[in-house]
Amino acid sequence: MKKHLIALLCLTLALLMTGCGEKSEAFSFPEEGSEYIDTAELPRVYADPAGYRGKYVKLVGRAISTLERHTGESFFLFIPEGYSSPIAVHSADSSLQIEEGDILLVDGKFWSTKNTGTDLPHLAAASLTHSTYKDAFRPTLKEISPALNQTQEGCSVTV
After folding, report:
1. Model confidence pTM above 0.70
2. Which of 13, 29, 141, 150 has its CA 20 to 30 A from that of 127?
3. Quick check: 88 and 123 in contact, CB under 8 A?
């Protein structure tokens, strides 16, 4: 009886461990053949997150929740620029530091999680970069250094 109970327990643990395999697939990023979608397709991603599984996207936006860690991965909620609905961003980087309000550049792929109880799109981040408002939302298009020197009535002004 004891042997059957131990065997049943081992079999149950083995089945539970195989159910956790989605994480390794989510954080595998091939170097070639990545299909990137345009950010204009995000409304369709919100409507059908499972239909965009495996597709890549580059987003700029703001973290709306602090970082949470669970089973070796970090995740937070993120709102892309121009949208009001969040995306759950997951990272395998355990040393990641993100606070609410941080402006981020996120490059990753969509994947769906089982039994999350939400219809949010989930994005596995290949790279996360902190940025500033000026660089992320209103980047400098052209920088001019005139270096003009004007002298009038003995007074010199350099611009």
Report:
1. no
2. 141
3. yes
